[in-house]
Amino acid sequence: MISVFLVDDHEVVREGVAALLDAQDDLEVVGGAGSVAEALARVPAVRPRVAVLDVRLPDGTGIELCRELRSRMPELACLMLTSFTDEQAMFDAVLAGASGYVIKDVRGNDIVNAVREVGSGGSLLDGRAASALMSRLRTRAETPDPLAELTAKEREVLGYIGEGLTNREIGERMFLAEKTVKNYVSALLAKLGMQRRVQAAVLANKVRTEEGSG
Q: Which positions carry the signal peptide feature in this UniProt record (predicted)?
């Protein structure tokens, strides 16, 4: 039995998907939430195998939620379910550790199969999501600037990493919670294809040197 938790701010959508999944012999919906905060409070308590997350939520994004949930529960498979074919969102979702990305207007049976696939350890992107992601990866490969994918905040965090500041010290400089800084660090490392903070520090100093001499 694959246990599933649903996160969507539209109750009608949650109830519809829940009815669809609960009708299957091998799937069981164990809970639901309408916001990031609610999901962070409830998901760890029921420890589902799969979390189906809407990308856009009232108090954040399903991508941020995916990253946070997987940091607490590495065994959790996250399936992004959204109305939007936003290439950046798809790209960020994969970097955040999502196992799949499905557009809401697919047939009900496709959602069922997607949950089964990620619940059994697989990964998937529907056709549109896959082509958009591949386009994004090609663009990234052709972009000489290693920082091109970083947001302004992530670039700022990278600069402070280059100065040797801790997450707490960066948080004090940027007026952010230490946990928020940690999330930014994880995101920028993923986007840069790096595993360790020291690699980011070396890059930050290299960029600073190049800008100083340019």
A: none
Structure tokens that stand for 57 in this block:
């939520």
Q: pTM above 0.90?
A: no
- With beta carbons less than 8 A apart as the criterion, state whether 84 and 77 touch: no
Q: Tell me the backbone φ, ψ of residue 135, rounded to 5 degrees.
A: -60, -40
Identity of residue 43: V
Radius of gyration of the chain (CA): 19
185 vs 157: CA distance, rounded Å: 7
Both tokens assigned to 175: 């007026």
Chain centroid to CA 96? 3
User: Rounded to an integer, what distance in angstroms lies between the CA atom of residue 161 and that of residue 185?
Assistant: 9
- Residues 136-171: pLDDT tens digits? 666 655 555 668 788 889 999 999 999 889 999 999
Q: What is the pLDDT of residues 18-67, one digit of tens each?
A: 999 999 999 999 999 999 999 999 999 999 999 999 988 999 889 889 98
CB atoms within 10 A of CB 30: 17
Cβ pair 58, 86 in contact under 8 A: no
Handedness of CA 175, 97, 64, 87 (dihedral sign): positive
